[in-house]
Amino acid sequence: MSDATLLSATRLEGRALIRVSGEDVRGFLQGLVTQDVAMVRPDAPLWAGLLTAQGKALFDFLLWGDGDDVLIDCEADQREALVRRLSIYRLRRKIVIEAIEGGVHWSREAGRGVADPRLAELGFRWLGEAGGEAASGWLEHRLRLGVTEGVGELGSDKTLWLECNAAELNGVSFSKGCYVGQENTARMNWRAKVNRRLVVAPLGEAGERTRAVYPEIGLMVEFRRVEALGDAVLPAWLAGALD
């Protein structure tokens, strides 16, 4: 592979874009998602979740500012479901929620894009054209840093948002107003009691705790009690939260 190809091999396969536009887009999303949408800018994306009323993760995504609009960087396989879910809350508002063309791009090295808002070590991310060579190494890079994402790992209506390590990975604002699932999320944070965590571990025998297995890189994602993390990957950002 040539140097030019390596430089262009940045597109994250499996990611897609949604545009939310219309009247008071940020106010609409502010009452739904876990992050403070007022803080979203083109150069300052935020990782957020859309939860059940009980505070369990349904979808996770990155929010990007685009003028008065907000772009949602989400799983391609979940894009239609996310559009449908958001549309339920639209009611009579003059809000348009639509899938759009475009690509999500990533590089480990600085030079283009902005640092991933979850963890700087994840690398740099930007929105661009849908074409170009697919990036390689993203999955392993992310998992070896202990970061989980997507319905396959977080589950849908299975895991409380703080059990997804959302507080440690900048996925929730505790100072904004109400949103769907806010009551349980705020209560858990106030009590400082998260009994279970999603963690990455070396590949082993899958069991009831297992959410995803990646034999090609020798890793798996499991949902474990904090007193029984065993051989889980414990990067500094997570280990500090468990002290």
TrEMBL record:
Coiled-coil residue windows: none
Name used for this protein in its record: Folate-binding protein
Keyword Protein biosynthesis set for record: no
Keywords assigned by UniProt, alphabetized: Transit peptide
UniProt superkingdom: Bacteria
Example of a GO biological process term: iron-sulfur cluster assembly
Gene3D superfamilies, sorted: Probable tRNA modification gtpase trme, domain 1
